[in-house]
Design a protein that fits this description.
Strand content: 5-15%
Largest sheet: 5 strands, mixed
Enzyme class: lyase
Oligomer: single chain
Keywords: 4Fe-4S, Gluconeogenesis, Iron, Iron-sulfur, Lyase, Metal-binding
Protein name: L-serine dehydratase
Number of strands: 9
Bound molecules: iron/sulfur cluster
Order of helices and strands: HEHEHHHEEEEEEHHHHHEHHHHHHHHH
Domain Serine dehydratase beta chain: 4-155
Domain Serine dehydratase-like alpha subunit: 185-451
Structural class: alpha+beta
Length: 461
């Protein structure tokens, strides 16, 4: 299956696509199998084993509560955040969940078995769910891998991602194939991606769903700019977006382009503060990197001629182009911090955003490819070392910095004619290989870098 733009941009909850959204989806798949096989009423016990990075940073990423809610039948796309809090409070008080919403099972976060030192061969984000009868017999068991961006692969089930069939003509799995396709058929990158999406749904549906994604992104940033106080966890990180918004709004009531960089920073900050507090979020392509694409889209809509003239069409072209670039990272490398470090999350998002903006600025497909390449080339080696296992430091500011990098990459590419020495395919392969060589300390385990050099008791920001 080719990767769909709706695989990369999906609505969920914070703070992590791989450690919150993915585990909740995995628990949902497990429950679906129990229900589909008519087994759920025979279950008396559920055992949860977490391995590798899920075990190492699950506590800071909300992994265990996400699994409990997933086992009850909640989905990250639809659960309301206040409902989530209410339900978790009840589970913690009772020490019980309602499996599939109907079978009472004794299970809490502390019952889950954590094995941070055990890395399963297939992926560092792994979890095994097992259901037992009253007599102790295994009713159903499966192992799930949360492979980044909320994608989940089950050991025994077929891949259910919703992308189009990639066998037909008109599909691309590399930047070289994408460029050849655009040149052969006279397409922009967004048109090539739209054609791929339209194998499974109408163009009208694609446009409608992309505008919904945009609306959720905008609501998320508005929420972020309206809330103050401290983010969850013991880092004591104060939310900054609301205060910044109030001051910036007063300084720049006319939205002068001279303040563009400040607004871009603010959007990224607001989205990532919402993510860190477990709010409603769009993976782009992950939660930790979710602020970059909304921030650069904000720039495209507010400060480019195309965005000012037709915001809806600009949104659709931006997200399709970013999705086309993101699909290459998903296909050819990884968007999982636990697999390749932060270069796979924030680096991929910056590359996607740079490509999207380059098209909106009037770039040719080769300039789009160049912009995406520049943004990743200068993200190579970026490690994942979140302090306290929380998606806060360095994640929140890193999104703002990388949104700026994406805008700069797009503007640099537009100054050239699209010819350049390092291809996007080469830089994607370099990112993958660098990630494979990277020490596990720097791959979402919070055992290296800032995570060990900064005390979690330090008051930041
Ligand atoms: S450091 Fe990067 S990859 Fe790691 S949690 Fe933060 S945003 Fe995600």
């Amino acid at each position: 299956m080719a990767v769909s733009v709706f695989d990369l941009f999906s609505v969920g909850i914070g703070p992590s696509s791989s450690h919150t959204v993915g585990p909740m989806r995995a628990a949902g798949l497990f429950v679906d199998e129990l229900v589909g096989r008519d087994m759920v009423d025979h279950v008396a016990e559920v055992r949860v084993d977490l391995f590798g990075s899920l075990a190492a940073t699950g506590a800071g990423h909300g992994t265990m509560p996400a699994i409990l809610l997933g086992l009850e039948g909640y989905r990250p796309e639809t659960i309301e955040t206040d409902e989530m809090e209410r339900r978790l409070a009840t589970i913690r008080a009772d020490g019980k969940i309602l499996l599939a919403g109907r079978v009472v099972i004794a299970l809490t976060e502390s019952d889950m078995q954590l094995q941070p030192g055990r890395r399963l061969e297939q992926h560092p984000n792994a979890m095994t769910l097992a259901a037992f009868s009253a007599g102790g017999a295994v009713v159903y068991r499966d192992t799930y891998f949360s492979v980044g961006g909320g994608f989940v692969v089950a050991e025994t089930l077929p891949d259910r991602s919703e992308g189009a069939d990639a066998c037909a003509d008109g599909f691309f799995r590399s930047a070289a194939e994408l460029l050849a396709l655009t040149e052969r058929d006279g397409l922009s990158v967004s048109q090539a991606m739209m054609r791929q999406e339209c194998v499974n749904r109408s163009e009208a549906e694609v446009r409608e769903r992309l505008l919904h994604i945009r609306d959720v992104m905008v609501a998320c940033q508005a929420n972020g700019m309206s809330r103050d106080g401290f983010l969850p966890g013991n880092l004591q990180v104060r939310r900054r977006a609301r205060d910044w918004f109030v001051r910036l709004d007063a300084e720049d009531p006319q939205r002068d382009p001279a303040f563009a960089e400040d607004w871009v920073n603010l959007v990224a900050l607001a989205v990532n503060e919402e993510n860190a507090s477990g709010g409603r979020i769009v993976t782009a392509p992950t939660n930790g990197a979710a602020g970059i694409i909304p921030a650069v889209l904000h720039y495209a809509l507010r400060y480019t001629p195309a965005g000012i003239a037709d915001p809806d069409d600009t949104t659709i072209r931006f997200l399709l182009t970013a999705g086309a670039i993101g699909s290459l990272y998903k296909e050819r490398a990884s968007i999982s911090g636990a697999e390749v470090g932060c270069q796979g999350e924030v680096g991929s998002a910056a590359s996607m955003a740079a490509g999207g903006l380059a098209e909106i600025l009037g770039g040719t497909p080769r300039q789009v490819e160049n912009a995406a390449e520049i943004a990743m080339e200068h993200s190579l080696g970026l490690t994942c070392d979140p302090i306290g296992g929380l998606v806060q430091i360095p994640c929140i500011e890193r999104n703002a910095i990388s949104a700026g990098k994406a805008i700069n990459a797009a503007r640099m590419a537009l100054r050239g004619d699209g010819t350049h020495r390092v291809s996007l395919d080469q830089v994607i392969e370099t990112m993958r290989a660098t990630g494979m060589d990277m020490s596990a300390k720097y791959k979402e385990t919070s055992t290296g870098g800032l995570a060990v050099n900064v005390s979690v008791n330090v008051v930041e920001c």
